[in-house]
Design a protein that fits this description.
The protein has about 140 residues and is of the alpha+beta class. Helix content is about 15%, strand content about 45%. InterPro entries: Pyridox_Oxase-rel (IPR024747), Split_barrel_FMN-bd (IPR012349).
């Protein structure tokens, strides 16, 4: 039998620490736009790097954004999903930028990303679903 259950905030943060790629949704004048990004969970915030002229760089500052990370097992039809919602913040403090650089994952895509955007994890929700309602990412 398939089930689902809501994840606690601590479980959501644990899943955010496990992964390094997620999707950020931003509102643009043309409508919602979703962008896959590498990220790090640092100091209670989801932190991404982007270019200033990108969709995220253009629309995330002080805009309402959402960030999702998940793990799915198609064979067992189970997985988990975590969503963080809030206002994007540009990180400009040199000490904070240095701290983020220390733990940044290797980027999956080429290019220069000089803008750092953070999303506080104060509004985080998640759920697990499937036969066991518990799946851990690899």
């Amino acid at each position: 039998m398939l089930h689902h259950r809501d994840l606690s905030p601590d479980e959501c943060l644990a899943h955010l620490r496990e992964a390094e790629v997620g999707r950020m949704a931003v509102s643009t004048p043309g409508g919602p736009h979703i962008v896959p990004l590498t990220y790090v969970l640092h100091d209670g915030r989801v932190v991404v790097r982007t270019s200033p002229w990108s969709i995220v760089g253009t629309h995330a500052r002080e805009g309402l954004v959402a960030f999702e990370v998940d793990a799915l097992d198609v064979a067992s039809r189970s997985g988990w999903s975590v969503v963080v919602r809030g206002r994007g913040e540009f990180v400009t403090d040199p000490a904070q930028l240095a701290a983020v650089r220390e733990c940044w994952p290797v980027p999956w895509a080429a290019g220069t990303r000089t803008l750092v955007v953070a999303l506080p994890t104060t509004d985080v929700t998640g759920r697990s679903f499937g036969a066991s309602s518990v799946v851990h990412s690899a």
